[in-house]
């Protein structure tokens, strides 16, 4: 199993503004990086999709891209409510959420893998600046996913949906992560894969790099790519801690 190691270099960076030296639109003067987990670092979306499809089937409904779009990026509770509404079962959200949690837990127990480039990019960022995970999964599922993928020791700081007042799309998770890292959100970059997560990061004031889990257009972003293994991302990470953005 590949694991993460490295420590951040000391740096003396001025607060970056929305201008200056950019990798496309990501500042090399970034002072912290905060990653989403599901579908971004770890291929847990397959586990979620299997669980979601089973619930839809049990209620006599097909499950395709349109149905996936209803639940992707949401908390377990919010996904349960969305499915209850879709099934025409108002008031059943808590019951469906509990079933979803159980099914996802069972799927994750079979193991989840890091997505291409995830470990390498996290290691490169962590060697230069503080890093954290901000996930809309509950702590139980977040720890399982990071552990299965060999990413648990990459992050001294991780934050789960059940540890903040309001999960994504509210800004709480990203604000909490930046506060723990001691870096202003405006000096930080978020990596996300869903519209829900992007909205959260934007509301908190971070730059946003996006690798979408689902095909589509119109996602708000400062950088958009198809994989964390993109060479320009590693090149950008290699420049962190070396430059002040003026």
TrEMBL record:
<feature type="region of interest" description="Disordered">
    <location>
        <begin position="1"/>
        <end position="22"/>
    </location>
</feature>
<dbReference type="Pfam" id="PF00702">
    <property type="entry name" value="Hydrolase"/>
</dbReference>
<protein>
    <submittedName>
        <fullName>Haloacid dehalogenase</fullName>
    </submittedName>
</protein>
<dbReference type="InterPro" id="IPR023214">
    <property type="entry name" value="HAD_sf"/>
</dbReference>
<dbReference type="InterPro" id="IPR036412">
    <property type="entry name" value="HAD-like_sf"/>
</dbReference>
<dbReference type="InterPro" id="IPR006439">
    <property type="entry name" value="HAD-SF_hydro_IA"/>
</dbReference>
<dbReference type="InterPro" id="IPR023198">
    <property type="entry name" value="PGP-like_dom2"/>
</dbReference>
